[in-house]
Design a protein that fits this description.
The chain contains 13 helices and 17 strands. The chain has about 425 residues and is of the alpha+beta class. It has 2 domains: about 100 residues, Helix Hairpins (Orthogonal Bundle); about 300 residues, 2-Layer Sandwich (BirA Bifunctional Protein, domain 2). The strands form 5 sheets. An 8-stranded mixed beta sheet has the order 1-10-11-12-15-9-8-4, sandwiched between helices. Strand 11 and strand 12 form a beta hairpin. The longest helix has about 40 residues.
Length: about 425
C-alpha cells in the first residue's frame, strides 16, 4: 500500500496522481485517511506518555520504598496504567486496520514517464527489435503443428483436468526443459541468487503483493485452508522478505526463481481454446530485485536489459511497450510489457512484464533498508519475467517452423536438447 508518510508530506502530489490516473472518485479518501491517521498519532502519543509516566512512577516507588516512605497511593496510580495502555492499543489497532484498508485503494505514485491513457490500446511502443523472417510457405498454427507432430495432447488434458492444461511429449517437452535450464543459467551468470519457493501462499502475503480483491478471479484458492496457489514466484519471494531489515551496503538484493505458476483467468478471452498461449498452469523463471529507493530505476533498466538479452539469444523478434496510466495496476509505479512476434497472427503478444512497485509492496510487508546514517526507509521492489516457457514455445514453433513441419531449435538451446538442431515429429 502507499506509505502513509507520503500522504502526510505530499497530499497534493497524491491528489494529482489520482487525477492523472482518472481516479478522481478516490480523492475524498485522502482526507478520511489523514483524519484517522491524526487520531492514531494522538493515541500513540498518549501511549508513549503513559509508558513514560509508568517508568517514572516505578522509579519513585523504588526510591520512596528504600527511604521507608508511604507508596500506597503511587502503587494505586501505577496499577491502572497498563489498563489504559491496553485500551489505547486496541483503539490504535482498529484504526490501523481502517487506515490500511483505505490506503490499499490508493494507487502508487506513477513515474513521470508513464503515458496518459485509458486502456491497453493507449500503451506506447518504446522499441522494436529483431528480424521478422518471411517464409515461402503458410505457417501452421502451433496447436495444429503440435498435434500433427504428436508433440502435445490437448484433448486428453481437457478430459483429465480441463481446458487450459496440456501434456507435452518428445522434443516439445525437452524444449520446455531446455528453456528453463537456459534461463536459469543466464540469470546465474548475471550473479542473481537462485531461490525455489513454496507454490502456495497465505492470503496475507498476497494482499501485500497485489490487489487480491481485484484479481480474486485469477487465484486458485485451496478449499477450507488459508492457502492459494501462486501466480508467480515473485509473490513468494516477497513473503520471504517480510519484516526484514537489510543493511544499505548489502543492496541491491537480486533473486531469480523457477516455479510452476497457476492462474484461473476466469472470463479471459480464449481460455477455452486449445494451445499453450493462454493456460492455467505454466512454467516461469522470474527475476526480483529489492533496491535502495535511490537506485531502483537503475534496477528497472537492468531487469529490462536481462529480458532483452534472453530474447536476442533466442533470436526472437520482439517489442517493448510502455504501460499507460489507465492500464497500470495500482501497486505499480511504472511497468512495461515485452511482446514477441507471432507470424500466424502477424502481431505481437505479451511474454514478459516488468514493474517497479517502489515502496508500495514493501510498506505492506514491512521490508526496510537500514541506511548508513541509521535511518530506515522502505525498500523498492521490482520484478520482471525472465522467461515463461509456454508462450516462448509458441513463438519458437511459429518463428522457427520449416515447410516440412519440423522446427529448428535456437542455437542457444541445442546443448540442453542433446545437441539436436531440429525438432522431429513423434511417429504414432
Amino acid at each position: 500500500m502507499l506509505p502513509i508518510k507520503i500522504l502526510r508530506e505530499n497530499k497534493e502530489i497524491v491528489i494529482a496522481n489520482l487525477k492523472k490516473k482518472a481516479e478522481d472518485n478516490k480523492i475524498e479518501l485522502i482526507d478520511k485517511i489523514l483524519a484517522l491517521d491524526e487520531t492514531w498519532r494522538k493515541f500513540t502519543y498518549e501511549v508513549d506518555q503513559l509508558r513514560s509516566k509508568r517508568n517514572k512512577l516505578s522509579e519513585s516507588i523504588n526510591t520512596i520504598k528504600k527511604q521507608g516512605g508511604d507508596i500506597k497511593s503511587l502503587i494505586v496510580e501505577a496499577k491502572d496504567i497498563p489498563n489504559q495502555i491496553n485500551e489505547l492499543d486496541l483503539k490504535k489497532t482498529e484504526l490501523k486496520k481502517q487506515i490500511d484498508s483505505l490506503l490499499s485503494q490508493i494507487p502508487n505514485l506513477m513515474h513521470s514517464a508513464v503515458p496518459q491513457g485509458k486502456t491497453e490500446e493507449d500503451n506506447v511502443e518504446i522499441k522494436k527489435c529483431g528480424n521478422i523472417q518471411k517464409k515461402d510457405f503458410e505457417i501452421i498454427n502451433h496447436v495444429e503443428l503440435c498435434e500433427k507432430n504428436n508433440w502435445a495432447e490437448f484433448d486428453i488434458s481437457a478430459e483429465t483436468t480441463g481446458a487450459g492444461f496440456y501434456y507435452l511429449k518428445g522434443d516439445l517437452a525437452l524444449l520446455n526443459q531446455a528453456l528453463i535450464r537456459f534461463a536459469i543459467e543466464f540469470m546465474h551468470s548475471k550473479n542473481y541468487n537462485y531461490i525455489e519457493t513454496p507454490l502456495m501462499l497465505r492470503r496475507k502475503v498476497l494482499e501485500g503483493a497485489i490487489d487480491v480483491e481485484g484479481f480474486k478471479d485469477t487465484i486458485y484458492k485451496i478449499e477450507d485452508e488459508d492457502l492459494n496457489l501462486i501466480g508467480t514466484s515473485e509473490h513468494s519471494i516477497l513473503g520471504f522478505m517480510e519484516n526484514k531489515v537489510v543493511s544499505e551496503d548489502k543492496l541491491p538484493l537480486k533473486f531469480f526463481s523457477y516455479s510452476m505458476c497457476f492462474r484461473k483467468e476466469v472470463g479471459s478471452h480464449g481460455i477455452n481454446e486449445k494451445g499453450l498461449w493462454r493456460t492455467h498452469q505454466f512454467n516461469k523463471v522470474e527475476q526480483v530485485i529489492f533496491a535502495h529507493p535511490n537506485e531502483s530505476w537503475n534496477s528497472y533498466n537492468e531487469l529490462l536489459q536481462n529480458s532483452e538479452e534472453l530474447l536476442q539469444q533466442l533470436e526472437l523478434p520482439y517489442r517493448v511497450i510502455e504501460i499507460c496510466t489507465g492500464d497500470l495496476s495500482l501497486w505499480k509505479s511504472r511497468s512495461a510489457d515485452v511482446e514477441v512476434y507471432r507470424p500466424t497472427i502477424n502481431a505481437y503478444g505479451e511474454i514478459m512484464s516488468l514493474s517497479n512497485c517502489t515502496a508500495y509492496q514493501a510498506e505492506a510487508l514491512n521490508i526496510k533498508v537500514l541506511n548508513k546514517d541509521n535511518t530506515r526507509d522502505y525498500l523498492h521492489t521490482l520484478n520482471n519475467t525472465a522467461l515463461a516457457t509456454s508462450r516462448i514455445m509458441v513463438a519458437i514453433l511459429e518463428n522457427f517452423q520449416n515447410k516440412d513441419g519440423t522446427v529448428n531449435i535456437p542455437e542457444c538451446l541445442q546443448k540442453y536438447m542433446f545437441n539436436k538442431k531440429i525438432m522431429q515429429p513423434i511417429k504414432a
